[in-house]
Amino acid sequence: EDQVTQSPEALRLQEGESSSLNCSYTVSGLRGLFWYRQDPGKGPEFLFTLYSAGEEKEKERLKATLTKKESFLHITAPKPEDSATYLCAVQVQTGANNLFFGTGTRLTVIP
Amino acid sequence: ETGVTQTPRHLVMGMTNKKSLKCEQHLGHNAMYWYKQSAKKPLELMFVYSLEERVENNSVPSRFSPECPNSSHLFLHLHTLQPEDSALYLCASSQESSIQETQYFGPGTRLLVL
């Protein structure tokens, strides 16, 4: 069964304290892995897509990496405005454009 | 308006009411989606439309009825809902419904069923 697991469930960081969020997956044929950011009361905002193991993408303080079993979202020197829930989703080979989402990591960055 | 918009943003309804959620995308995409987001659960895909045709229905109860009159608009008609249907309902769109297309989400409609 296709499964996406994100950890930790919640993370509190001091401003400037770098860390990583994890997304592990067991799917039958990965076509793409997506990272989204979701602020309270809003819809998910697209951040990155990764397609193959070894791929990396960066945007400001965020860097996403992908292996055959998991993806990491590295946050370097975070700021309070980075506080949000970060969602990971995988797209598999079968079916339409189906995304299987994890439950997210709720990040709080304290000034 | 840009991106994906949804109305209303908040909705409270009784179990015997009938209401509709509206989604509009201004991105020129051909595929649209309805998702349900409940607390501490992953987003659940409900329906997928491609060029106004429904291509996926993930075993959603018949009290939820989607409608896609054109590739820019998507509706979710609600009737005789249950309290457990209270959730954030998200609309998304992508260029196509094929794989490897990025989905862009609207702000959602927060639904409370009393």
Structural key phrases:
heterodimer, A: 111 residues, mainly beta, 6-stranded mixed β-sheet, 5-stranded antiparallel β-sheet, 0% helix, globular, B: 114 residues, 7-stranded mixed β-sheet, 4-stranded antiparallel β-sheet, 11 strands
Unreliable sequence segments of chain A: none
Written as H for each helix and E for each strand, in order along the chain, the element string of chain B is EEEEEEEEEEE
Number of strands of chain A: 11
> Which structural class is indicated by helix and strand composition of chain B?
mainly beta
The chain pair with the largest interface is: A-B, 26 and 30 residues
Distance, first to last CA of chain B: 32 Å
C-alpha Rg of chain B, in Å? 13 Å
User: What is the average per-residue confidence, as pLDDT of chain B, rounded to a whole number?
Assistant: 91
* Helix content, binned percent of chain A: under 10%
Could you give the order of the helices and strands of chain A? EEEEEEEEEEE
> Mean pLDDT of chain A, nearest integer?
93
Helix content of chain B: under 10%
Structural class of chain A, please? mainly beta
> Could you say which overall geometry of chain A the principal axes of the C-alpha atoms support?
globular
Give the helix tally of chain B. 0
Number of helices of chain A: 0
Low-confidence stretches of chain B: none
Q: What is the approximate shape of chain B?
A: globular
For this structure, the quaternary state is: heterodimer
**Beta strand % of chain A:** over 45%
Estimate the strand proportion of chain B: over 45%
How would you portray this structure in words?
The complex is a heterodimer of chains A (111) and B (114). Chain A has 111 residues and is mainly beta. Chain A has strands at residues 3-7, 10-14, 19-26, 30-38, 45-50, 56-59, 62-66, 70-75, 84-92, 99-101, 105-110. In chain A, the strands form two sheets. In chain A, strands 2, 4, 5, 9, 10 and 11 form a six-stranded mixed sheet that branches. In chain A, strands 1-3-8-7-6 form a five-stranded antiparallel sheet, with no helix packed on it. The model of chain A has no long low-confidence stretch (mean pLDDT 93). Chain B is mostly beta strands and 114 residues long. In chain B, strands 2, 4, 5, 6, 9, 10 and 11 form a seven-stranded mixed sheet that branches. Chain B has a four-stranded antiparallel sheet with strand order 1-3-8-7, with no helix packed on it. At the A-B interface, strand 4, strand 5, strand 9 and strand 10 of A face strand 5, strand 9 and strand 10 of B.
